[in-house]
Amino acid sequence: MRRVPEVLDCWFESGSMPFAQVHYPFENAEWFENHFPGDFIVEYIGQTRAWFYFMQIIATALFDRPAFLTAISHGIVLGDDGRKMSKSLRNYPDVYEMFNAYGSDAMRWSLMSSPILRGGDMSVSESVIRDAVRQAINPLWNAWYFFGLYANAAKYEAKWRTDSDNVLDRYVLAKLSDAVTSVTATMDAYDISGACASVRSFLDVLTNWYVRRSRDRFWNEDADAFDTLYTVLEVLSRTAAPLLPMVTEEVWRGLTGNRSVHLTDWPDAASLPADAALVASMDEVRAVCSAALSLRKAGKLRVRLPLSKLTVAVADAQALAPFKDLIADEVNVKEVVCSPPTWPATANGCCRWCHAFWGHGSERMCSR
User: Fold this and answer.
1) Which burial class, exposed, middle or buried, applies to 257 when counting CB atoms under 10 A from its CB (0-12, 13-18, 19+)?
2) What is the CATH number of the domain that holds 149?
3) How many domains is the chain built from?
4) 156 pLDDT exceeds 70?
5) I need a labelling partner for 368 at 20 to 30 A (CA). Which of 3, 12, 135, 267 fits?
6) Does the residue 314 lie in any domain?
């Protein structure tokens, strides 16, 4: 083995890639001028002082231009022993076993939703991959399975529409519009983990609120419910397709019968009805229900046990008034009273609903 004298340094060679790969300036001048600088580059954080650095220095010296317009510098992938992942150490779960057990989407999501895409380090383990199934894949698949089960049982052919008057339908469509806007903005900014967070947040709304609160409507074969859920799943599949390519492909093709979700257009948030006031109020309702259920759990009061009264103290009590029946049904109380706070702040500080009176005595319980 002998060293070729023309080789200056391996990083200098790598930094010359943008033009050397096409033998510029000796040929392919037109191609180079139309493809340089590159739109996007990605590597781990160590390359900020190696490949990234050399490319910028050489491009600036030769062309007085940057070598790339956008870069993602991700953190270090660690093995399950906390050391840098290494093929020689084999300190990571068997890739094919993970594929077979959880699927490639789970591995993809676990990486893209982690802090690693914001420069943090990540330890790859089976539990991390399994969490991806729980956080993203199962909620989407369960919503699709639920829709298919009831739509097929009713022999109803759902269609894309957004004109339902039902408050839950209007809410989930407005939340979907917000989710599409958020995912579009974060993807445009190359914030992949931010896009994953937006999708995961919407999936929680879809499965743990909309579908659960609408079950009786599907049992009663409500056309508005079927059409709304069809629309939500269709748009959500297109939105999440870059993040969960396999499961969204299966869901979207099952819904539409068309060739591929990856060959269709990116969703437009403007095609969905926006309603900021409804979203704010319903989000408040969900927070109230969550706090009330936490109080039930703290007081060891089963949800099946009906209680006489729940008093919700919020600054804007009027905004929650139209949803009192929904809150009462969700937390299983006979009466919901919404009123502005009237008591002084407690020593540890008041949140908006830190006092609740249940009406089965004079007991007060604080969610803090």
Assistant:
1) exposed
2) 1.10.730.10
3) 3
4) yes
5) 135
6) yes
